[in-house]
Automatic annotation (TrEMBL):
Residues 153-410 form the Saccharopine dehydrogenase-like C-terminal domain. Pfam families: Sacchrp_dh_C, Sacchrp_dh_NADP. This is Saccharopine dehydrogenase NADP-binding domain-containing protein. Residues 7-148 form the Saccharopine dehydrogenase NADP binding domain. SUPFAM superfamilies: NAD(P)-binding Rossmann-fold domains.
Length: 427
């Protein structure tokens, strides 16, 4: 059996807070340290999680600067962490990733190291891709006998588990793995009027949606993984996708996302894409931010103070962790797989996971977008704790067996996590 699990979770924002509330109900770990730059925020998360289980003492709070790899290493060693769980935005992936390895701990994240592309490069030209910095260090993790599990949120994460499941159980040949994400969420003010408030980090939304989206095609690469990647202009190839469980049709566009960089590494497919149901209002806002230069991360001087325009935009919007009581509707994460089924016939199947905000708020006090993201790394940690999932090096969820994950996610509580997933064939 693996060593007793001691988790250092870096980040007590919306996803981190939800993850602690989910994890406290489970018995697979002996310690869970919630660390944040703001110690009081970490302490609030711990208090909220402990309140869900009387007598709970496994959770504790700590302070850490996620941008400082040495600080992450020092804290991981101090708390004897076996696993460092990165629950902050992708700007801090590399310091936490580096700090975990130096502390001889395994690592999990929900978003990978950032892409870098020259602004004047032709759109089809791919620069440094999401996750490239992490995969470049795979040999170090392998030599240390430690696992870095990348992209184990919902998208990426559950969508990647779906890809492995489809390849193993449903399809003989896959033409396309197409992640499709959409929702019918509405956020209202105190007077009941609809207001603009993103369901997760605006900093991350800007990063994903204004970067050129990446697509992978086997034929373009001629059998070479790296040669199969190319980019499109932001918001390319809009399509109306019909989401299940009452969400209905939503216009989706290409967005830069980790699935496209992960799935081709472990799953045989001819094409891999990611499209997100942003909606007309969000696309208009993002275009305006870009036009005004407010998407930039480069600091500018404002009355003698250096500030990043994107940080200012994010700070002006509500904290995604606080909007749950004003949110209504459902969010859907899923993967449309097309190709040839096990019976030799053409097949198109959408595998999906829907969460109703009313349910996540009632059961966990967490809005549905952050809750849906948070549950998947907790499930993964439980599978790692009991040895069902194991490995070393830098891996994606596709590299690990999917059925135990999907079974544990869907099984009723308390045996599982009580969050069923669905599957429907499309024509």
């Amino acid at each position: 059996m693996p060593e007793p699990m001691r988790v250092l979770m870096v980040g007590a924002g919306g996803v981190g807070d939800a993850a602690a509330r989910i994890a406290v109900e489970r018995d697979f770990f002996e310690a869970w340290v919630v660390a944040d730059y703001d110690l009081e925020r970490a302490e609030r998360t711990v208090a909220a999680a402990r309140a869900r289980r009387p007598g709970e003492e496994r959770l504790s709070a700590a302070q850490v600067d996620a941008s400082d790899a040495d600080a992450v290493t020092a804290l991981a060693r101090e708390v004897r962490a076996t696993h460092v769980f990165n629950a902050v935005d992708p700007r801090f992936v590399m310091p936490i990733f580096t700090g975990a390895l130096a502390a001889d701990a395994d690592y999990l994240d929900m978003a990978m190291s950032l892409s870098v592309r020259h602004p004047d490069a032709p759109y089809e030209q791919v620069g440094v891709k999401l996750g490239d910095e992490q995969f470049a260090r795979a040999a170090e993790w392998e030599a240390a006998g430690r696992l870095a599990l990348l992209g184990i949120g919902v998208e990426p994460g559950l969508s990647d588990v779906f890809a492995r499941y489809a390849a193993d159980e449903l399809f003989d040949h896959i033409d396309e793995l197409g992640t499709r994400d959409g929702a019918n969420l509405v956020i209202r003010d105190d007077d009941g009027n609809e207001v603009f408030a993103p369901g997760f980090s605006m900093w991350t939304i800007i990063e994903e949606c204004l970067n050129p989206p990446v697509v992978w095609e086997r034929e373009r690469g001629g059998g070479d993984l790296e040669a199969g990647f190319f980019t499109l202009p932001p918001f390319s190839e809009p399509e109306v996708f019909d989401f299940p469980e009452g969400i209905g049709p939503v216009e989706c566009v290409h967005v830069e996302h980790e699935e496209v960089l992960l799935m081709p590494r472990w799953v045989e497919a001819d094409r891999v894409t990611f499209k997100y149901g942003l909606g007309e209002e969000m696309i208009g806002i993002l275009r305006t931010l870009h036009t005004l230069g407010l998407d930039s991360t480069e600091p500018v001087s404002v009355k003698g103070v250096q500030v990043s325009p994107r940080d200012v935009v994010a700070a002006c919007l509500p904290d995604p962790a606080t909007i749950g009581p004003r949110m209504e509707g459902k969010t859907c994460a899923g993967l449309l797989v097309t190709g040839t089924g096990k019976d030799g016939s053409p097949r198109s199947t959408y595998l999906y996971h829907v969460v109703d905000n009313a349910d996540s708020m009632r059961d966990y006090g967490a809005q549905c977008v952050v809750w849906q993201t948070a549950i998947n790394p907790v499930v993964a940690l439980e599978l790692l704790a009991d040895g069902t999932w194991k490995g070393s090096g830098v891996l994606g969820p596709e590299a690990l067996p999917p059925k135990p994950f999907l079974d544990l996610l869907a099984a009723p509580r308390p045996e599982g996590y009580g969050s069923p997933w669905g599957m429907e064939d499309r024509t």
